[in-house]
Every structure is written in structure tokens, then in C-alpha cells.
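Problem: given the chain below (188 residues), write out its structure.
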Amino acid sequence: MSLIQQQYHELKQTVETFEQFLPQVEALLPLFEQCFQRGNKILTCGNGGSAADALHMAEEFIGRYRGSRRSLPAISLAADVTALTCIANDWGYDAVFSRQIEGLGQSGDLLVTFSGSGNSANIIRAIQTARRLNLTTISLLGKTGGEAGGISDHAIIVPTNNTARAQEIHTWIMHVILEHIETIYPME
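Solution.
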């Protein structure tokens, strides 16, 4: 089996295994819809490739997904290198997201975390801080969900030990959410 065939087979197997979790994905849609209708915002965060996913989600809400619509409020907490380095220097890397949530988060906002393992200390602290401030927490996770899976209001765990496959499903989930939101806020 070639590398391409192997990778395709792994992806296909992950997609087939994930089908049982589609109702959980569907349950997220009203959370995003209601957040925007209330005038609240989305905060996103993750590390490494998951930081790229967090950036991707926020930019799609602020910019656009498929069509032109009004900009929707979203901030990636992984985007501001000055905030990240300041907080990491003064409070430690475990606080890089939670400190931003303290300053930017408001009751009714959504925090969306991306993590391949669900065990990153900064993700766990972000969720704890968000819950303390009455933000709804949504975690897109891999493996067994880790600690984040047990403390998030809504955890979607892609049951694979392959972080790349989990991230691919996370991207699909993100695109489903964006597709739904664009039915609420159609093209202008």
C-alpha cells in the first residue's frame, strides 16, 4: 500500500467512525446562532496546528466563508504574538489563553478550543476561566478528549490517536458550522 493509499484509508476510516457523532455536531449549530443573535462573540484557541484551526475559524467569521455577509465577531486568542509573549513571559505559557479570556471574554460568549489531546495546560486553564466567567465552552478534541473533554460544556472527540486525522475532522466540523451560519446571515 502506498503512502497516499495508507493516508486516504486512515482518513476514510476516521470519517466512518465519526459518523456516530454527527448529532453532537448538529447540537453545536444553535449555540453559534444564538451567540451572534445575542450580540456576543466567539473566542478561539489552540496550540500548533490547532492554533491554525483557531485562526481559521475566527477569520472565517470576521471575513467570510463562501459568500458576502456582515462580519461576525470572533477573535483568535492565538493571533496576537505581543499578547502571547507578554503573558508567557510574565505569567507563564499556561496562562496565554486564560489571561486573554479574562480581558476579552464576556458572559454569553463562546470559547472554542482545538486540541489533539485535550491535555494542554493552557487549554484546560482557558476552559476553566471561561466557565468561571459564564462563557459556553466547546472543545474539538482527539484521542480520548483528555481533561478538556471532561470539563467542557460541549466536547466533540474524534476517536483517533492520529492528530492529523482529528484535525481534518475538526476542519470539517468548523466548515459545517460556518455553512449553517451563512444560512442565518445570507449573502448581501
